[in-house]
Design brief:
This protein has three helices and eight strands. The protein is of the alpha/beta class. Strands 3-4-5-6-7 form a five-stranded mixed β-sheet, with helices on one face. It has a three-stranded mixed β-sheet with strand order 1-2-8, with no helix packed on it. The chain is globular, with a radius of gyration of 14 Å.
Length: 138
C-alpha cells in the first residue's frame, strides 16, 4: 500500500490543500473539515513511469482527485491521469474518481481533444480543465 497516512503532505482535517508546480495551482477547499490526505505522485511515490502530479483524497466522502499540472504541452496529461488511476485503482476502488488538468494557456483544440473527450465519457464528466489555477470545494 503506497498511500499511507504518514506519506500525506497535509494534516488530517486541513482546510486548504494546495497542489502547485511551475505557477500552476489546484486549491482544494475542505469546507466540512473532512478527513483528507494529499500526495505528490510523480517523482515522489511513483518514480519509474508516467503519472499525474498530485492526488487529494477526501476519505470522509470517498472522493479521489487526480491532478495534473501542465505547462504548454497538455497532450500527455490524459495519459498521465489514466496511468495514475490504473496504478492506484486498488487503493481508491471505493472512491469516486475526479480528474483535474490545470495547464498554461490551454487552447480550445487541447481542451476538446478526442483523448480528453473519451476520458471524460469514461469518468462520466468528472474531468475538468482550466488554465492557470483551479479552486474547488472537495
Amino acid at each position: 500500500m503506497l498511500l499511507t497516512k504518514d506519506k500525506s503532505l497535509c494534516e488530517e482535517h486541513q482546510k486548504i490543500i494546495v497542489s502547485e508546480e511551475n505557477r500552476r495551482k489546484h486549491r482544494a477547499i475542505n469546507i466540512e473539515h473532512s478527513l483528507v490526505r494529499h500526495y505528490r505522485l510523480d517523482g515522489d511515490i511513483v518514480r519509474q513511469e508516467k503519472c499525474c502530479d498530485f492526488l487529494v483524497l477526501n476519505d470522509s466522502k470517498k472522493r479521489a482527485y487526480f491532478i495534473e499540472l501542465k505547462g504548454t504541452n497538455t497532450s500527455d496529461a490524459v495519459q498521465q491521469l489514466e496511468s495514475a488511476v490504473s496504478r492506484f485503482k486498488d487503493e481508491v476502488n471505493e472512491y469516486a474518481i475526479y480528474l483535474r488538468i490545470v495547464g498554461k494557456n490551454m487552447r480550445t483544440h487541447q481542451i476538446n481533444s478526442t483523448e480528453k473527450r473519451k476520458l471524460e465519457e469514461k469518468y462520466h464528466g468528472k474531468l475538468l480543465c482550466k488554465s492557470g489555477q483551479m479552486e474547488e470545494a472537495i
